[in-house]
Amino acid sequence: MLRIYQGVILSCLVVAGNSAFAQVWIQTAAPTNVWAAIASSADGSRLAALATQTCYISTNSGTTWTSNNFSASGSVLAASADGLHLVSAQSNTGEIDVSTNGGGNWAKSTNYIEAAWFSIASSADGKKLVLTEGGPLVRASTNSGATWYSLASLPNSGSQGQFAAMSADGTHVVVAINNKCICSTTNFGSNWLTNNLSIPCEAIAASADGLHFAIAPYGGNIYTSSDSGVTWTQQTNSPNALWWSIASSADGARLVAVSGSATVGGAGSVYTSMDFGSTWISNSAPSQPWQRVASSADGNQLAATVYGVSPVFRGGIWISQTTPSPQLNVSLFNNNLNLSWLVPSANFVLQEASDLNAENWTAVTNLPTLNLTNLQKQLTLPPTNSSAFFRLTSQ
């Protein structure tokens, strides 16, 4: 809660809440399938998952799912912060498909090229996109996938895959070339920095500001960077596993990684970290051939898919939800009060009162806006000549 008097901060308290991180996983009503990809909106309410010529959509955090006919067999998938702009790409034909209504309808991009796409990354507004393949080609779009161009030709990796992640504003991009090197840019490809760190990369995740990145290798410990991909730390406390996917919260502190097996249908685990990858805990998730994972901006809503071809492990989509504890931040600019908080994966309302012990708090009617550079909800209020307290409360 915040106490303000004549525009001067008298006290600032963090809203308390449940600080536990993702321990319970529940299988959703999504059917058994060979799931290829999953993506989440920033608040976790909208989810999209790709299977063979089918896209499944949830608009209620995975409680229920609907499907549509999806002509392509998408292999990789990316979503904007609102979950409405989706882009899928195939690993065999190179076809790129775009949706502007959360997967309800899809349109084929007209200037794609045949490539074995390995990963796709999206900015928060869905306008900037990066596609990487099994080779040196990196394709980019600045108009939500309507047209594409060559962003870079990175060191030749032969048939080795490249995996990309980017910041919320799309300026910071890291491309990990499997077993060869890591390339990074802070200006959307105008300049690249390359190091010779060789990691058997399978997936990569980024924080909203593009400072924190995490790499999940297919065999080995997880690696993290806190300087936009310039230097990397091997997190030896993380399990040595065959990682298939990794996802990050907006601040980069909360990470979730899923592993599988080299054998089709072989079982794996789910691990999470709350301290930028320094320490890891095993979740109470069943032993399954986990394939892909997605995270909300606050890291409290996680969604993961199970590879569904084994007669033992029949696949499905699983959800983990913990209670968010959004921190209310305050700053002063031009004598105005600026309030901000990370978009939560549950419904929170900003309230105010003149007395901290007031029984009745009033909802602030001014609507916050979403800052797409940091995924923070923001609200500016003019100064008053009275004392006021502010709080976020769940609904």
Q: What report would you give on this structure?
A:
The chain is an all-beta fold. It has two domains: 83 residues, Immunoglobulin-like (Sandwich), CATH 2.60.40; 296 residues, Methylamine Dehydrogenase, Chain H. 0% of the residues lie in helices and 45% in strands. The protein is built from no helices and 37 strands. Strands 20, 21, 22, 23, 24, 25, 26 and 27 form an eight-stranded antiparallel beta sheet that branches. It has a five-stranded antiparallel beta sheet with strand order 2-1-37-33-34, with no helix packed on it. A hairpin with a 6-residue loop joins strand 24 and strand 25. It starts with a strand and ends with a strand.
What's the total number of strands? 37
- CATH homologous superfamily assignment of the largest domain: YVTN repeat-like/Quinoprotein amine dehydrogenase
Overall CATH architecture of the largest domain? 7 Propeller
- How helical, in percent, are the residues? under 10%
Q: Which consecutive residue ranges, at least 5 long each, have pLDDT under 50? A: 1-20
What Rg, in angstroms, do the CA atoms define? 21 Å
User: What's the overall geometry?
Assistant: globular
Which class do the helix and strand fractions yield? mainly beta
Oligomer: single chain
**Please, how many helices?**
0
What's the structural domain tally?
A: 2
Mean pLDDT metric: 87
| CATH level 1 class label of the largest domain | Mainly Beta
First-last Cα distance? 17 Å
